[in-house]
Amino acid sequence: MALRDIIVLPDARLRLVSEPVKAVDAEIRALVDDMFETMYAAPGIGLAAIQVGVPRRVVTIDLAKKEEPPQPLVFINPEIVSAADEKSVYEEGCLSIPEYYEEVTRPVAVKVKFLDRDGKAQEIDASGLLATCLQHEIDHLNGVLFIDHISKLKREMVVKKFKKAARRGEHPKPKVEDDKPSHHIG
Ligand code: NI
Questions:
Q1: Is 79 a member of any domain?
Q2: Which of 89, 100, 107, 159 could form a disulfide with 83 if both were Cys (CB 3.0 to 4.6 A apart)?
């Protein structure tokens, strides 16, 4: 396993549409292992492969709290089959837009089909934080960021801030607060 670098705004690769995985082979499983290591170290609760610069449709999620045993979830080629009409609001953050949080409105529940780590077809009915996280990560696979769901004014402000930081050669890192669960969704 190896820790990989997480790319941040305004890296143009964040806008790529990731390619489907054709076969869940050793290379994909190695990518998944690296993504978990990178996600836990960040720390974040979800990660899409493009965030480590790999444009493939692979997502890792672990919603376990600090004191709980890890609950690693892998979603390969995830696809939203259906979404609830009811919406929920969650203050999201993103490892590729560190230190910025904003409320995002999304369907409260989604049905998602995907391949698991063994390449087996699966389906999950997700609600609550898992539904939010899955939608956030599937957005990444389509080159969409959570700031695309907020007002244009707020989005332009945060993009400007990160462009300025990049020009100065700064690479913002998420702040780790031990007593608080990370709300960098991924
Ligand atoms: Ni994200």
A1: yes
A2: 107
> 70, 113 in Cβ contact below 8 A?
no
Return the CATH number at 144: 3.90.45.10
**Catalytic option among 67, 137, 156, 170:** 137
Distance 8 CA to ligand 1 centre (A): 10
- Give pLDDT, residue 169: 86
Distances (CA, A) of 167 to 67, 123, 153, 170: 39, 43, 21, 7
Distance from residue 17's CA to the centre of ligand 1 (Å): 14
CA 131 – ligand 1 centroid, Å: 14
Q: What is the mean pLDDT of residues 92-105?
A: 95
Structural domain of residue 120, as residue ranges?
Answer: 12-168+178-183
Could you read off the pLDDT of 115-157 as tens digits, one per residue? 999 999 999 999 999 999 999 999 999 999 999 999 999 999 9
pLDDT, tens only, 153-167: 999 999 999 999 999
Identify whether 99 is part of a domain.
yes
Number of separate domains in the chain: 1
User: Rg for the chain (alpha carbons), in Å?
Assistant: 16
Asked if 68 is an active-site residue, the reply is no
- The contacts of residue 42 (CB under 8 Å, 6+ apart) are 6, 95, 174, 182, 184
